[in-house]
Amino acid sequence: MSSEEKWPIGVFASVDAGLGVQWDVIRQLQVPTIQLHAPAPQSRNRETADRLRKQLEEMNVTLTAVFGGFEGESYADIPTVERTIGLVPEDTRQQRLEEMKQIADFASLLDCPVVALHLGFVPHELDDPRMSGIVEVTRQLCDHCKNLGQALHLETGQETAEGLLQFLGAVERDNLHVNFDPANMILYGTGEPIPALRQLGPHVRSVHCKDGTWSDQPGKTWGQEVPLGEGDVDIKAYLKTLDEIGYTGPLTIEREIPQEPERQIAEIGAAVKLLRELKAAL
Ligand code: MG
């Protein structure tokens, strides 16, 4: 891929367990970029990194971000997400910080300049007593990434655009940015994605192309994730808005149905086609 190309299409991929498409599917989809779900702890070593790097080179695919995830996380329902995801739960925070640092080290072995994660449910008020600990752990992770020449991207969804802006301001680190996921705003019921994208504008440094429908009880129960173009994210308006805010980075497709790999590949294939058409028409 030429790094000059605007909006290179990508997919979210996994090498072992994870939400992304399996490794051999990358070739099949013929996309120029991927984001990678960090492999299991025992695979985060130089040997695996060398192998993956070689394979990516052969496929002419650029790795644009490594996403961290942890044992014990569950997206079963919104209260479970609040309890189990990311660096927010206090009893696992220190251990997960260490693990995220290892993931950043692994990303560095892959020459990947971006590490990303779902930080978890950040409290909505800055004076919440839990806030200082969450700000502090995020700073520590940012500083570790900074030493490796990396940025840290926070996946959107669990908080409103305003809440996220407030949090970014509180952390005060210039390598902390946003991975914008329009469907998550809808699935979690935290706001209309297009205005949120405008609001977060300059902080958005990577994006997911994912679609979803609103829940009848937004914020209480999940909306539903659906194939790109079939949900409540207006994908055409999404791309137009990305253009307006000056975003030129990859468009990484996510379709979180790893339990149905064939359907996943077919629907991601259709999403690649849709994005190519919309890109050409803009
Ligand atoms: Mg996402």
Distance between the terminal alpha carbons, to the nearest Å? 21 Å
Largest sheet: 8 strands, parallel, barrel
**Given this structure, which CATH class is correct?**
Alpha Beta
- Give the overall form: globular
Provide the number of structural domains.
1
Q: Say what oligomer this is.
A: single chain
Count of strand segments: 11
Class by SSE composition: alpha/beta
Question: Topology as H/E string?
Answer: EEHEHEHHEHEHEHHEEEHEH
Q: In CATH, what is the homologous superfamily?
A: Divalent-metal-dependent TIM barrel enzymes
Bound molecules: magnesium ion
Question: Please, could you describe this protein's structure?
Answer:
With 282 residues, this protein is an alpha/beta fold. The protein has one domain (9-281): Divalent-metal-dependent TIM barrel enzymes (TIM Barrel), CATH 3.20.20. Helix content is 43%, strand content 17%. The strands form 2 sheets. An 8-stranded parallel beta barrel has the order 1-3-4-5-6-7-8-11. A two-stranded antiparallel sheet has the order 9-10. α4 (90-109) packs parallel to α5, α6 (161-171) packs parallel to α8 (193-200) and α8 (193-200) packs parallel to α9 (235-244). The longest helix has 21 residues, at 261-281. The protein is globular, with a radius of gyration of 18 Å. The mean pLDDT is 94. The structure holds magnesium ion. Residues 155, 181, 184, 208, 210, 254 line the site of magnesium ion.
